[in-house]
Amino acid sequence: MKGNHYIFYTPEEQYPGMPHGEMCGDLMPFYWEGRYIFFFLYKYCIYATETRDFVHYTKARLVLQNGSPDEQDWHVATGSVCYANGKFYFYYTGFCEGNRNEEGKNEQAILRAISKDLYTWEKDKTFCFTPDINRFENLHWRDPQVFWNEERGTYSMLVTATTKYGDYLRNGCTAVYASDDVSEWRFDEVIYSPGIYPTHECQDAFKIGDKWYLVFSTYSKWWETRYRIAEHFSGMWETPLLDDMFDGREFYAAKTVTDGEKRYLVGWQAIRKDCRDENPFVWGGNVIVHELVQRNDGTLGVKLPDKIRSVFKRQIQLSYRRKDETSGEACFHEICGEGFCWRQIGNLSKTMLFEGVVSWKEGTQAVGLMLHTAGSRLEKWCQLRIEPYHGRIAMERYNQIDGEQMYVDERRIQFNKNEATVLLLVSGNIMLAYINDTALTTRCYSVSDGGIGIFVECGEMRWTKLALLKGEESDEHI
User: Fold this and answer.
1) What is the CB neighbour count within 10 angstroms for residue 239?
2) Distance between alpha carbon 415 and the CA centroid of its chain, in Å?
3) 115 has which bridge partners?
4) Residue 54: left if φ>0, alpha if ψ -120 to 50, beta else—which one?
5) How many CA atoms, within 13 angstroms, populate the side-chain half-sphere of residue 62?
6) SS3 for 308-359, per residue?
7) What is the CATH code for 25-309?
8) Please, are residues 389 and 365 in contact by the beta-carbon 8 Å criterion?
């Protein structure tokens, strides 16, 4: 398999007209002895890749082979790995679509495999946790997330389930089962059942400081990864008022992993069919890793992991800059009383990182970056927009004028002191932006390389602390 093994991992190379969408799906991260092992779904099986820095990844290896059409694990699906009793336990989902509506059978069930070294796994044929039909419907029963729960003093298993009597497509819930030694599981409680979503997929729960966080993904409107906050594991789970997401609408099925010091959020960035901007999304994509940041109010933000930032060392010369009259450092200053003004400041190639701090005069409508610019009359471009009075950031591109306009790639954000720190990682068709501690990842397939510039609409802006940095040389395929 020739994929991308540099920062944005995929097991297969992505190319225009690719005949399938089999990329990384449903990342199941696990940390052990300095290694981050990312188990993921691929071709109805579970594979794994490893990394120590979120930059370089090993080639994928098969972990769990799917079974025959007559077996419960005809399709092997999402789960989690835990360590207990001197062994590694992989709890995962077994899908057998042929069992749907068959008396005495289950389309979904929770299965288990055991390993001593994280490489060789043996399916435990004695374990099959079927839907608890006395409490839940006999359909959604998957994505087991198992962890040691300090608050409970037991192992907890989160299960994607649906209540029996909830409204149609609104009965998704988070069920919890408990075990003292992972051998037997008993019903504990339902910790979250808001009556909003059809399911809560790929759930994760963890504690930072004195706050509990519940992460889950939903597909009822768009593909989105959301989170809730509580004082205790049982809830009540509160929704962050400004924004309950970590990234945009193509970042999905994210779970977290910790090395004991920092906690990272690992998910996949969706791709579009045939790698065309106007086509619908298909399942799976590239690996995206964010480092979680706990804000003073208890909400969560994200940042680029330091391990990724550290590989960008070679600074590229920027053009059209002047000295700040006060500090003496290089800056860019633009005034545009009405309409749109922009200036190219450099060129993009391969994988590059832009850093800067932008400030704006009160009343300015928008500031930001122009990316992948091309043509004497700016025929091609992508635009990272900061709109202070709309309280949002957005990514737009030239071919949305007559193209697919189902939604805008945007995030809610609150600005202070008319200033923002901007970090943008561009690699192939992926554009990963951090505005302060808010992320927005998007793609544009119809552009490559090109220029990078700054812009302002109806106002005044100033950029300082600017840097355009190149990563180490790599054989990268996005």
Assistant:
1) 12
2) 23
3) 88, 121
4) left
5) 9
6) HHCCCCEEECCCCCEECCCCCCEEEEEEEEEEEEEEEEEECCCEEEEEEEEE
7) 2.115.10.20
8) yes
Q: Is the dihedral of CA 395, 397, 400, 401 positive or negative?
A: positive
Closest by CA to 223, choosing from 204, 199, 248, is: 248
- List where CATH 2.60.120.560 sits in the chain: 314-470
Q: Which residues are CB-neighbours of 231 under 8 A, at least 6 positions away?
A: 210, 211, 212
- The token duo for 469 is 């940095």
Residue range(s) in the chain whose domain bears CATH number 2.115.10.20: 25-309
Number of other CB atoms surrounding residue 125 within 10 Å: 8
- For residues 432-467, b (16+ Cβ closer than 10 Å) or e, as one string? bbbbbbbbbbbbbbbbeebbbbbbbbebbbbbbebe
Looking from the CA of 9 toward its CB, the CA atoms found within 13 Å total: 27
pLDDT tens for each residue of the chain, 478 residues long = 578 899 999 998 877 666 565 689 999 999 999 999 999 999 999 999 999 999 999 999 999 999 999 999 999 999 999 999 999 999 999 999 988 888 889 999 999 999 999 999 999 999 999 999 999 999 899 999 999 999 999 999 999 999 998 899 999 999 999 999 999 999 999 999 999 999 999 999 999 999 999 999 998 877 899 999 999 999 999 999 999 999 999 999 999 999 999 999 999 999 988 888 888 888 899 999 999 999 999 999 999 999 999 999 999 989 866 666 666 677 889 999 889 999 999 999 889 999 999 999 999 999 999 999 999 999 999 999 999 999 999 999 998 876 555 678 999 999 989 999 999 999 999 999 999 999 999 999 998 899 999 999 999 999 999 999 998 765 555 5
Choose which CATH entry (2.60.120.560, 3.40.640.10, 3.40.30.10, 3.40.190.10) describes domain 314-470.
Answer: 2.60.120.560
Dist. CA 322–CA 345, nearest whole Å:
12
